[in-house]
Amino acid sequence: MEARSITAEVPMTPRMSDDPAQLVPELADVSAALFRATGNGSVPRPTISLVQLRAGQIVGSTYLTVLHTGFLRKAGESEERITSVASWQDSPYFTAAERAALALVEAVLQPPADGERVSDELYAQAAAVYEPKALATLMLVIGQVNFFVPVALIAKPVPGRAFNAPWK
């Protein structure tokens, strides 16, 4: 595989010309079920979007990063909170619960060279700020974004297009 020059223009077309949701219509059912499960109200919507934005940053997906940044802006989140997600560890803009959620997504997506991805200490910190249903929902939120990572990285939908129409 040949690496693209860092000065090369990135095309504003999807890599995969066909919409995966049209090729595999069952994807809509899975997606809808995941959105219902994660939207049960036990985890605040801004926290969900912060986690999903951080996941997009970690996996290097411009599509997911732009998508979730847009969701946060539409929800009225401040630019300081949005732009400091990448450096949340030393940012003053996040609650203890949001920090725990961001730490969990990083642990799952950036495993250490040795040891567990999610340590007992990290689990205890998250469990201290989330009720059991919320913690289970947060696990699904991380799983939800991970479900879409292959679509974002392999098919490469166009960043900035509507969530329901990245191939149009």
Summary, kept brief:
The protein is mainly α. 58% of the residues lie in helices and 0% in strands. The longest helix has 24 residues, at 132-155.
Give the low-pLDDT segments: none
Q: Please, what is the average pLDDT?
A: 90
Straight-line N-to-C gap: 28 Å
Alpha-carbon Rg, integer: 17 Å
Strand content: under 5%
* SS field, number of helical segments: 8
Helix-strand category: mainly alpha
Share of helix among residues? 55-70%
Q: From N to C, what is the helix and strand string?
A: HHHHHHHH
Count of DSSP strands: 0
Largest sheet: none
The shape is globular
Task: Describe the overall structure.
With 168 residues, this protein is an all-alpha fold. It is built from 8 helices and no strands. It has helices spanning 20-23, 26-38, 45-59, 62-74, 79-83, 96-109, 120-129, 132-155. The longest helix has 24 residues, at 132-155.
Which characteristics define this entry?
single chain; 168 residues; mainly alpha; 8 helices
What's the layout of helices and strands?
Layout: H1 20-23, H2 26-38, H3 45-59, H4 62-74, H5 79-83, H6 96-109, H7 120-129, H8 132-155
